[in-house]
Amino acid sequence: MKSQLYLTALFFLIHLGAFSQTIISGKVLDEKNLPLPGVNIYIKGSYDGATSDADGSFEFETEEEGSHTLIYQLMGFKSQEFTITCDSNPIAFKDVSLREMITEMNAVTISAGAMQASDASKAVVLKPLDIVTTPSAMGDIIGAFQTLPGTSTVGNDGRLFVRGGDASEVGIYIDGLRVGNAYGSTAGNFPTRTRFNPNLFKGTFFSTGGYSAEYGQALSSALALNSKDISPRSQGDLSLLSLGGGYSHTLSSDKQSITVTGNIFDLGPYQNLIKQNIDWERGPHSWDLEMASQKKMADGSLLKVMARTESAGMKLWQKQPGQEGRGVYIDLNNRYTFAQTNWKKAYENGWTLFTGIAYSDNKDDIFYDSVNLQKNSKLIHAKFTGIKDFSDRISANSGIEYFQSDYSEGIVEANLERDYTDHQFYGFTEWDFYLSKKLVFRTGLRGGNSSLNQETWLDPRASFAYQVSENAQVSLAGGTFSQVAAENFRVLNPELKNVQSKHLILNYLYGAKGRTLRAEAFYKSYDNLVTFDGSPMAPENPINEGIGFAKGIDLFYRESRLIKNTDFWVTYSFVDSKRQFDQYSTKVQPAFAPKHNFSIVAKHGFETLQSQLGMSFSMNDGYAYTDPNQDGEMNAKTRSFQSLSLSWSYLPKPNLIIHFAVSNVLGRENVFGYQYAQTPNASGVYESLPSGQAAPRFLLLGVFLTLSKDKTANNLNNL
Amino acid sequence: MKKYFLIFALSFCWINLVKASDPAFEKAMTKQIQAMETIQTLEESQKVSNSFLRISEAQPEEWLPLYYAGLLQIESAFRFDVNQDQALEQALEYIEKAKNIAPGNSELTALEGYAVMGKISVDPANRGQSMTPEAMQLFGKAIALDKENPRAVLLMAQMELGMAQFFGSGPEKACGMARMGSDLLRKEKEKITESYILPTWGQRMASQFEKVCQQN
């Protein structure tokens, strides 16, 4: 009976409660004390609440009683909580101001030197798809980057040259791990390519200077390639090219995927069909096998494994200036293996841990005339980093790294061999401070030690960025950069010190929907450059006595909204570089650093034809070279380099692409320098041969077919 | 002692009963679902979305409030002048949260595909190739989870139509799927009662298809 009474009383109490309502009102402001609409204000654990109006005010009723938590919440802002007591008396709550959170989406980023290619929503310079659709690139990652500011095209080399630096000054990384010998081996003025297929990567980060303390062993540039995550579906991809073909198979589930690819290329039949400038005995040929696997672990971390092995070769006759006959016979064979694995996990407490290890092994076996040269370089890179977000305003990225580099070269007949092993240890730390979402400072320090030259060094770096208007920002970056000398010099003189460079970069970036404008000015100094006696083919007594500089400006403009279905970008780079290096006894303009560089890339989609037409045009004012018939070094310049490339992609079906591309459509005879005879002829003149293109034009025809079990269609048929 | 035990047991039953069908929850949801129908401005959308979020906060074991908050974000990306990517990312965040509450839910999977479809529409030239398979896979999964889900079928038909337009092929396949979707919608309508709070939208999409498919 007693309990029944109690229950009745309780019943009444609940109902009484329903009639006692508390009115809560207030106003929400932002950091500048302006009204903030759209804020969700509510009592924790109840449905009661309201959304702030255009004037920031709100009002709502609640039936709750007693002490409660009042929450102010808006996406992108830091939530606030207050304790209130509801007792049927109206509560006119004090004005509350919410602070905007600094997130990747709204904060300024440091853009000095940096160019990002990704699918992200921010104004990026290049999209991943651009890499495969730029006509002059011919599907090579580096080819697409050669249309970006700060780079120069060296048509008989193919590698990436940045702002007066040579190709070895560009560090290439996959998932933050260094790749050794990222380019294929080549000989006799035949341009090389990157070994890695663009399809492996979801995005790239390319910096032409002033980059993060995370990247070392790169004087001029860092190119970071980020591999893809778990594949969305199982499929097979068949590619048939005029030069060969391959097949790739992907198996995928929710938690993991694996892709295995095999390719065979042979330029021989093509070169027999179309006249070549190079006297081939056996055209370049190769095979490769590649595996990439991703796995999402039970604890939410991501594990990736990538491995690649390949074999390539070519045989050719290199004509010698001033000599009769086919010239020197070169037979090149290359074996290459790369493997890496990495693991990454983001923890709830703001830590992100990354650890990985990479191994590269490159073997070159070259017959030069009858001399058999053998070269082998191996690189191991192990890395551990931790990123900690202390708040939305301060974050730190620190890590330790170990490199082991082994190099050997020898002449088999003479039983000559020399080698070295170097152990390098690095530590770095870098701190980002957001003073507001418009202003960020970054300071970093990188320290290293090499066992071979017994040098220990520190590279401080700093940068900042300020957003001047909604779409525009300026940034400034500077720092010192160190790199051990090239391996063919180190093996001759293990005591060679690090080559050093200092960068200073001022950048302006304007990015609105469909339009990007980027302007950059830079100054770069070089110290301890390696100089040697003798020729580049056979250097002697290398020492660190060279110095140099590079300065200039870059302009980049990209527009995709001006003309319907047309996307284009225009680049101009001016580089004034002089350096004393290699065999030069004075400061000269390097052959790989033309002063004026211009390029334009345009793509137009024809919807009715299901096609895309691509056009790229590159030019520069010519390459410096030394004419021994005149006084001085680097005393002459080739004629202007110009090349127009066109491509046509046709998509008749969602899973079929037909791609056709021609480089140097106009057939201009570009010359990248001249090769001179060692000794003058009877009339006292050094005879020469131009170092030109492998062929006037290069044609590529490819058919790409994707085969996938159309699970979705199967499902529909079952309906 | 026995009596106390009985009260204790009864009160337990009562709590369980409340959990199974909470009239306050249903009432609050019904009110907001009705409010959704009349949304004309971004402000109104935000109000309703916030109300769903409040219900979700108070009822963290329910996936439906997050579902509707996500749907409103996707719709506002299409209808109003907002940062589309930001709105769609927010939608995906709500959907992810809801998926943790109700794994293997057909409606949530279809809605995720809808958000991915929205992301494609922001930059079709660059995202189409990489994200279309993702969207199609999600719709396929949603259909596999519930063959009677009209929204999953209609959304997939929408993707098919887009692809057919891009590749210049006829809309027959898309139209066939849309008809199936419309049939499923009609079937679903028979189940709808006053207190029905599960997703029922899709009629507008079905009507649009009727127009497109009649022309052919």
Which features characterize this protein?
heterodimer; A: 719 residues; mainly beta; Maltoporin, Chain A; 2 domains; 22-stranded antiparallel β-barrel; 41 strands; 6% helix; 56% strand; elongated; B: 216 residues; mainly alpha; 0% strand; globular
Can you tell me about this structure?
Chain A: InterPro entries: Beta-barrel_TonB_sf, CarboxyPept-like_regulatory, Plug_dom. The complex is a heterodimer of chains A (719) and B (216). Helix content of chain A is 6%, strand content 56%. Chain A has 719 residues and is mainly beta. Chain A has two domains: 16-97, Immunoglobulin-like (Sandwich), CATH 2.60.40.10; 114-714, TonB-dependent receptor, beta-barrel domain (Maltoporin, Chain A, Beta Barrel), CATH 2.40.170.20. With 216 residues, chain B is mostly helical. The longest helix of chain B has 22 residues, at 124-145. Mean pLDDT of chain B is 86; it is low at 10-20. At the A-B interface, strand 3, strand 37 and helix 6 of A face helix 3, helix 5, helix 7 and helix 8 of B.
* Overall morphology of chain A: elongated
CATH architecture assignment of the largest domain in chain A: Beta Barrel
Largest sheet of chain B: none
Helix content bin of chain A: under 10%
Structural class of chain A: mainly beta
Q: Report the count of strand segments of chain A.
A: 41
Query: What is the CATH class designation of the largest domain in chain A?
Result: Mainly Beta
What coarse outline of chain B follows from CA principal-axis ratios? globular
Number of domains of chain A: 2
Distance between the termini of chain A: 61 Å
